[in-house]
Amino acid sequence: MAMSRAAAAVRQRRCGPLLPAARSMASWFGHVEPAAKDPILGVTEAFLADPSPDKVNVGVGAYRDDDGKPVVLECVREAERRVAGSTNMEYLPMGGSVKMIEESLKLAYGEDSEFIKDKRIAAVQALSGTGACRLFADFQKRFLPDSQIYIPTPTWSNHHNIWRDAQVPQRTFAYYHPESRGLDFAGLMDDIKNAPEGSFFLLHACAHNPTGVDPSEEQWREISHQFKVKNHFPFFDMAYQGFASGDPERDAKAIRIFLEDGHQIGCAQSYAKNMGLYGQRAGCLSILCDDEIQAVAVKSQLQQIARPMYSNPPLHGALIVSTILGDPALKSLWLKEVKGMADRIIGMRKALKESLEKLGSPLSWEHITNQIGMFCYSGMTPEQVDRLTNEFHIYMTRNGRISMAGVTTGNVAYLANAIHEVTKTN
Question: What PANTHER family does the entry give (predicted)?
């Protein structure tokens, strides 16, 4: 029997509007469009689908050995052996492993840091560097809702996604100089000076991604001084400590300069690259505070932000990191292995540059060896990159970023020849 209008009105007040009879369950999400492909992950998908025996992937953001194979460090394997069966599988606290955090802070701030001794650092274990950045972005939005973040041009593309989804307004500052393939130091300093006082800036501590261009020590000192003048807040993303130069202390120099100058800082650490723990999502977020009381308050709020996101961080990667960094012999082995990875990357930079020069390229390739870290910003145009892919089966992101981890003694001559072919007419 049909429902009367009066009865229908009563039902709607009690139960909400009636659904159209034709609505199906699928129609709830019929308006959802496929997301755009991630530009980096899309490169790997295309590479895997290519049947060519000559194909080369220099888009991957993970270390490979000279045979192009993934690497598990010996120090990691030994740490796994020690960890196996040694603990239960209970939850970590919301803030993560205390031991891992302690070792991470010593790595970033210095073994004998006064800030660690004075308990002025609020720190939590994070889901690698990405999770650390996201926690900080949400913290920034919650407690400084009127602030914005200045992000370098260019930067790792996910930085924009992180602060966007945390609903923090973004601005950019000059960083890369395309003509010199180096740092736009003048533009960078102008943007720091012109930013509103008390602005937040995202800085890459070392091995800038994607350009491989880092300020010199003297330039870092000038940047730090200008931050002091303008009372800006520096947030460091340190994804490559040890992996850039082979020396973790050297790679933390920018952070140490800012600390010496009296800045309060934030820092995102990751163990994906420098320990090869990509899939373990092991990282740390730290914020230097005024005093211990403030640090306790800030840490409690970081934990509250983490609670509804993922409740608490994973255990296994934290155990590996704390075992390696907390044991002198294993730490010594790690330092040897991370230097070996860095040296291989540096060696491939030299080999690629020399191969291009031997081919008689009229272009300058000095930037290949001047840049540092996993990535080389080659200066090639999107059209030239397309030719590399279509004609030579070489895969990289269209901004010309070469992952030096994908370059080996077996393919460097082929890669150089292909680059020479697509760039020699320009």
Answer: ASPARTATE AMINOTRANSFERASE, ASPARTATE AMINOTRANSFERASE, MITOCHONDRIAL
Q: What does the chain come to in residues? A: 426
Region 79-87: mean pLDDT is: 93
pTM for this one?
Answer: 0.91
Q: Which two structure tokens, joined as six digits, stand for 276?
A: 């090869």
Residues with active-site annotation? 156, 237, 273
Mean pLDDT of the chain: 93
Q: How far apart are CA 183 and CA 168, in angstroms?
A: 26
CA–CA separation, 120 and 117 (whole Å): 8
Angle in degrees, 0-180, between the axes of helices 253-260 and 98-109, rounded to the nearest 10? 80
pLDDT at position 277 is 97
- Indicate whether 74 pLDDT > 70: yes
Q: Domains of the chain (ranges plus CATH)? A: 39-71+342-423 (3.90.1150.10), 92-326 (3.40.640.10)
Q: What local confidence, expressed as pLDDT, does residue 60 receive?
A: 83
DSSP string computed for 311-356: SS--SHHHHHHHHHHHSHHHHHHHHHHHHHHHHHHHHHHHHHHHHH
pLDDT tens for each residue of 227-269: 999 999 999 999 999 999 999 999 999 999 999 999 999 999 9
What would the two tokens of residue 31 be?
Answer: 């308006």
Q: Which two tokens stand for residue 4?
A: 């009367």
Residues 6+ apart with CB under 8 A from 374: 61, 63, 207, 209, 212, 240, 243, 273, 345, 403, 404, 405
State the number of CA atoms in the 13 A half-sphere of 300 facing the CB: 6
Distance CA 180, CA 33 (A): 41
Structure tokens at 68: 């192009």
